[in-house]
Structure formats: C-alpha cells, structure tokens
Amino acid sequence: MSLLFPRNTRHVFLLLAVAVMLPHIVCAQTAADSVAILRTLDSWNQGWEEADAERAVQAYADDTDWTNAFGDRVVGRDSLQKTLAFIFSLDFVMAGDSGENEFTDLTFLTSDVALLRSKLVRVGQQVRSGETMPDRHVHHLRVYERRKGEWQIVSHLISQAHEKR
User: pTM score > 0.70 for this model?
Assistant: First the structure.
C-alpha cells in the first residue's frame, strides 16, 4: 500500500481513467464506416443528375425526415421519393448543373450515429418563368444512424447560402 495513494484511491483513479477513455474507445469508427457514409452522396448526386428519385433515396431510412432549402418538409422515404419524382419532373428545377461537393465533413457522435455536412454549388438552375437563378450555394446536413448494420439517413436538412452584400 502506498502512502501517497491508498489502495481505494488508486481504484478511483483507475475508474476515472476508464470513464474518460471509454467514449473514445466506443466511438471509434472504421474506414469502412466513413466510406459507406460518403458513398451515400453518390446515390443522391446521381439521382439528381439522372432525375432518378429511387436512386436518390437509396440511403434514406423508412422514417427519414427531410427538409429542402425552401422549407418543404417530408417525412418518410416513400413520401420523399414521390416528392423528388415530382421535383425531377420540373424542367426549370432540373435546368443547370450541380458541381462536385466542395467539402464533406463527417463527424461520428457515437458508434451508431454520425453527422455529414456537405456543400455544392448549383449553376444554371431556373425559376418557373425560365429566368436563370444566381448560383445556388447549397448546404446539406445529414444525420445517419446505423440500423441493421447499414448506415441510413434519418434526417436531412438542406439550406442555401446567399451572397453577402
């Protein structure tokens, strides 16, 4: 037994050290987790490029909650697919091109929950009258949950940044 740290005190320090390290150990992710999540951007972007709503919603959970940059909210994967099919049928919306994602910031909150922030610029999109919109700086915040071994999007919020004047 040490004079500086009695036996009981050493156990307390050991328990405190484990408590401090446990979240870092539990939340450790594999490269495969990151790849699987980032791959969902491909299905979303390809869905938009090909006007394919089914492809766009591949990674979404059945009970997903989605809100676009104009404040339209949809709950449920099936409803989202129908909404996107309608959006994809609008020529003025589909005019233009979305570039590559400018960034993709992935953060794991737990071993089964992650956040993905991304941004792309949409150029040449039109309004209903056919007039071309200014470039749209579109930000996405997706919340992922690992369900039955797969990463699924449970929430997706889209926002648009306007040029500062």
Answer: yes
Residue with tokens 């949809």: 74
Question: Shortest CA distance to 36 belongs to which of 58, 8, 64?
Answer: 58
- Tens-digit pLDDT profile for residues 28-48: 578 999 999 999 999 999 999
Query: Domains (ranges, CATH) in the chain?
Result: 29-161 (3.10.450.50)
CA pair distance 28, 111, nearest whole angstrom:
7
155 DSSP β-pair partners: 65, 143
Q: Which two tokens stand for residue 98?
A: 């979305």
Residue listed under structure tokens 């922030």:
117
C-alpha dist (Å) from residue 42 to 38, 45, 57, 127, 162: 8, 5, 11, 26, 25
